[in-house]
Every structure is written in structure tokens, then in C-alpha cells.
Amino acid sequence: MATLSPEPPAAAGRRRGLAWLLLPALLIGLVALYYVLGALWFHRIDDDPSIGETIEVTPPASRAVAAAAALVRREVEIHRWTANDPWFQPTALLDNMPNYQQGIVAAVARFAVELRDHLSRVRGTSQVDTDAERAAGRLNYPGDVWFLEWSTTPVQPSSESQYRRAIEDLERYNARLARGEATFERRADNLMATLERIAADLGAAAAAVDEKALAGSGAWYDWDADDLFYTNKGRLYAYRVLLGELGKDMEGILSERGLGRVWEQMLTSLGRAAALQPRVVANGTPDGLLWPNHLLAQGYLLLLARFQLYAVVNILQK
């Protein structure tokens, strides 16, 4: 009967050495798969404009307030808040989604401030609605704060925990409004003040686009251009949803002033700007053939919407 000769020690040593060399490569591959597949799984740029159509409120509750709460809840609880994810989460690789989410919350925070300062106040009084005030403060909390932040304090509220409490504030305000225990002033001066603040916010966004486009124009790839593009995209999308529902809240005023057509044109411009989503955000020359400038394209539609907002304001002033 034939017997197998033992493996030479040198060959066994080479095999063990090869195994030790392959193990790190295998671990690196698994880590790469964890990050890449995890990031792809969670990545979501949700710019569905029909979110407002799913909102149901009990009059006289506000559709715009309900939309504000729905936008933040979707990003925090359904899609997952990614702007503050630590390095060991696969979503730490994401870039566009965190900026988009922060743009949405920035627009909702702007609306919450107007709710606190104008829409929820009774004419002739300085009394501030408590729920509106709390919501405005919490929505202005930075979006990139994880609950462990060693540079300041060992433990602090995370961004999503503050935003969840803001959702509760908005919904509590709207429930009180439905019961007649809160105020939502459907007046032309309140609408005008709100639109002026939103238009000013869009003006600041347009200035940032102009500065970035001029600074990086002509570069083959600008690593920061997509950050600004998606922050603006989130802001424009949220304003499209919020103003669409605010127009339903203020339907009587819009009808009385004959603003229906201008209002719809403004919403259309916001929707067109919010729908832009190039595969790669280019910051090329304004007249580039092969390498366009997506920031300037976004900026044009942003300024058009801003111009139409001011057109509404001018008519309300008459």
C-alpha cells in the first residue's frame, strides 16, 4: 500500500506565510464591503414633491406646520439622519445625503422661526407661543452633533434627539390649533413677512453659489461644489413643500389678491430647482461644452424663484 510522503517543512512554511499575507487583505476587503455596501444601502436623496398630498389635518390646523413636522420625521426616523454619523458607521462615507438633509432642516428651521415670530402671534401682542418657540430653537440645533463629543462635553444631545423633540413641539402646536387653543394668523402681513425672510434666505444661498462658482470655475472637479449644491437642493425642496402647503393655509388671501398664477409659477421654479440631480456636480466654466457648471444652473432657478417670491410680496403690499 502506497504512503504519502510528508510535506517538506519549507513548503509548509510558505503556505503559512501566504495565509498570513492573505488574512490582512481579506480583512481590508470585508471592511471595504461594510462601508461601501452600507453606504449604498442607506443613501437616499428623497425629493418627492408629493409628500404634502399625504398630509391630513383637522381644520383649523395648519398644513404647513404638519408638512414641516413630516419632512423632519422622514429624514430622522425613516431615512436615518446621517450628518452626524461617526467614523465607524458606513454612512460616514456619505457626502451628498448629509448635506441634503441639513438643507431640509435649515429651511424648516427658517419656517419655524417665522411661525414663532409672526404666524403664531396674536395681532398687537408680544406673547410667543411656547411650542413654536421650542420648535424653532431645537430645529436650529447643529446637524452634525453626535451624542458623544469629546471636544466639548462627554455627553450632549444629539442632532436627531433635538429634531425629534422639535417634531413633537410642532405636532403639539398643531393639535392645540385644531382645538382652538393656539393661534395661526392667516393675514396678508404675516404671509408677506414670512415670504420676505424666505426670499432673504434664498438670496444668501444664491450669493454662496455665485462665490463658489467664480472661485472654482474651470476646475475639472471641485470637491466642495457638491456639498453646496446638495445643501441648496435640500433647502429648495423643503421650501417647495412648505410653501405649497402654506399656500393652502392662506388660500383665501391668495384668491382675494389674485395671486394664484404667480404663486404657482413660484412653486414651479422651486420644484425645478429642487429636482436637479446630476450624476456628478460639475463646477466648470459658464460656457463650458464638456464640463458644465451645475451650481450656476441651480443658481438661475433659485434666483427665479426668489424673484417670484418678491413679486408675491409686492402684490401683498398693495
Give structural notes.
The protein is mostly helical and 318 residues long. Helices cover 64% and strands 0% of the residues. The protein contains ten helices and no strands. It has helices at residues 9-42, 63-78, 96-119, 130-139, 159-178, 188-216, 225-249, 251-256, 260-275, 294-317. It is globular and about 95 Å long. The mean pLDDT is 88.
Primary descriptors:
10 helices, mainly alpha, 318 residues, globular
Q: How large, in whole angstroms, is the Cα Rg?
A: 26 Å
The low-confidence parts are none
- Give the number of helices: 10
- From the N-terminal CA to the C-terminal CA, the straight-line distance is 109 Å
Derived from helix and strand composition plus strand pairing, the structural class reads mainly alpha
Globally, the shape reads globular
Q: Give the topology string: H per helix, E per strand.
A: HHHHHHHHHH
Q: Give the quaternary arrangement of the chains.
A: single chain
Major beta sheet summary: none
Structure summary, number of beta strands: 0
Tell me the helix content.
55-70%
Average pLDDT rating:
88
In percent terms, what proportion of residues is strand? under 5%
Which helices and strands occur, and which strands form pairs?
Layout: H1 9-42, H2 63-78, H3 96-119, H4 130-139, H5 159-178, H6 188-216, H7 225-249, H8 251-256, H9 260-275, H10 294-317
Helix pairs in contact: 2-3, 2-5, 2-7, 3-4, 3-6, 3-7, 4-5, 6-7, 6-10, 7-9, 7-10, 9-10
In brief:
This protein is an all-alpha fold. It is built from ten helices and no strands. The protein is globular, with a radius of gyration of 26 Å.
